[in-house]
Amino acid sequence: MKPNPLHPSALSPADIPADPWRYLWYVARAQTGLVALGFVLLSVSGAAWILLPWTISKIIDEVLLAGTAEPLARWSVLLVVVAIASSWVFVAGYRSLFMAESHARVRTVRNLTDHLNRAGTGVRGAISPGEMVNLSTEDAHKTGSFIFQLGFGWMGLVMTAVGAVLLWRASPALGATTLAGVLLIGFVVGPVLSRLQHHQIAYRSSVATLTGQASDVVGGLRVLRGVGGEEQFSQRYRAASTELRDAGYGVATADSWVQGLKASLPLALIAAVTWVGARLALNGAISIGELSAAFGMTALVAQHSGAMIGMAQAVIAAQVASRRLTAFFNTQSDIADDGTATGASGALRDPESGLAIEPGRLTVVVSAEAKPAEAAMERLARYAESSSEWGDAKLADLALDEVRERVLLLRDDYLFAQTLGETLRTGAGSAGEARALAAIAAAGAGDVHSSLGSTMDGEVHNGGRNLSGGQRQRLRLARALAADAEVLLAVEPTSAVDAHTESLIAERVAAARAGRTTAVVTASPLWLARADQVAWMWDGKIRAVGSHAELSLQDEYRSLTSRQES
């Protein structure tokens, strides 16, 4: 059985952790090679940056003040080496961490897609469409970018350690002042970062709510106008926008404090070390070169202490995003996937309604209400738990992958933004194109093909917005026919087309699916005339089965189908 891209293999709980911190570790661990290389390269670059002012101080003391050029050659070579290391090695480390961040973001999006395919309708009601947009964009970005910021925070720590050691060797007072200043920065900024995290959680929740409302109105604006609900929605959206604005102000207030402290505290540290170094130089405890080195190294350490604060900000933002992601990953499918049986054959039977779909035949299900018939189709396609059977086997005992591979349920399915060829999924080459054209012809979708430039490369917009309602419906039918599933269950596949087109579609589909199991929910006489058998459903139960001519002898059935005909 070929792999089904719509139902990826299940991951073990260890693959996607349920805890936010563990998920961040999982994201970073997947890029171990790139992250480790980036950390090593930035460590070398950070040490080289600190060694630059130290090397210059040696030139000042041993060459300029000593009045001799003998040590100049070796210190010049070292100066060139550390200058190259501080720049070129930095570029390599930056590139490595950026690649790790990009891979991490893609991995998160893939995890979201795979879990959405596995959980299916289990996500419905738990995660809004707007929340899904934020998960795959903003949250995926933040959980990836924290790796990048972590590298620069680590570089700042390395620079602080190397600088403190070199300054301590020059004077313990300078080393102690530098370390105390860095610790003080962390002590002051820490509570502000905690408050920022609190505001970010509230802001992230408000963004999800507002995005969900915006997504809903895009899909239902016409309905809102029809029932006069625009004003009510406007009031709700205005209230949610106000809440989001207030949450944004909270984030901005805390973030402004962080940014202000990032700018001011390092300057205070530079001033403190410079003052201590100047006093020591005046007393003769350190040389002029060591004083210049103290200033230069402290300036670099202070500059990169902001990177350490940025690292803390990134980790907080990533933890908030990871909390939302793991909440999504904790949603469960409402369909059990513990079946192992394969190779089922025979009729598909739904005991709840009494509907039986005989193999190799076109069955038309007639019902005054489409919902009960659609529910029966969902049970037979195993999109809802039931006691349905396939031959002698229970559907629940069959491997879900096999059911998905062999049974296709066609409803008002979504059309994604992609080419016509990608929509039909028939593959590249002349054989794939011929198969796609055959499906288009059978579905009466020739005008769709021509309106997209008569090429498989024609673009279908998101949701099929560049097509009419009838064209979208026929394109969905063409996609289902191109899949060539063993069993095709279709719910009102031609409700949006005119009678002449529907007649052609029914005739062509019956011919294209000859010898294959097909069931269509419709009361249209144009389909009924070509059915091998008709199942008449009343109040969700099959009342009679036979040919259209046989069932037409019953007044209620004839009244139902004749209304459709008239």
From TrEMBL:
InterPro entries: ABC1_TM_dom, ABC1_TM_sf, ABC_transporter-like_ATP-bd, ABC_transporter-like_CS, P-loop_NTPase, Type_1_exporter. Residues 36-317 form the ABC transmembrane type-1 domain. It comes from the Bacteria. The chain crosses the membrane at residues 32-52, 72-97, 146-168, 174-194. GO terms for cellular component: plasma membrane. PROSITE patterns: ABC_TM1F, ABC_TRANSPORTER_1, ABC_TRANSPORTER_2. It is found in: Cell membrane. Pfam families: ABC_membrane, ABC_tran. This is ABC transporter ATP-binding protein. It comes from Glycomyces lechevalierae.
